Fold this protein.
Amino acid sequence: MTTTDWITDIALLLVVFRQLREGRLDIKSYLIPLGIVSYVAQTYLSSVPTAGNDLVLIGTLVAIGAALGIAGGVYTRIRSAGEHLFIKAGAVSAVLWVLGMGARMGFQLWVDHGGSDNLARFSAAHQITTADAWVAAFVLMALTEVVTRLATIYVRSRMVTRAQQPAVDGQGAVATADQAL
């Protein structure tokens, strides 16, 4: 792993650790993780191989990334305080984020430190055609995890905001629902 790889992986881990402490949900909450994964995708994703079982590998890891991202978003607390929304990643959200990031980092370390022959044999046996398929699968997994987590948080934040809107009951009285998801 290069220094850039370490910095990028650590930055993605810090995104969720930063959210272990409650903070205001704002545009930075979305742009920072999207910026990091955009950089990773632009740096490491040169192609998406489609031969052999490459798409099966990619699809499997993308599905895992989506599941981790959605679950991470569901286990992030969102609450309203006045006109602002606040988020706090729960323990489950943090564990899922570290699990996804840790699996990618662990895989890369394993390949770099003696696992490449085993990976080559596995790839040949399962018709995974190139190392680029593994790169694409893991980069797209990370991208999917981030995007689905943020999308889940966005949808849930809209639900909290909607719950905060004054509602008119059948007799014309205004009521508010002050709930946190």
In short: The longest strand covers residues 76-81. The CA atoms of residues 6 and 33 lie 16 Å apart.
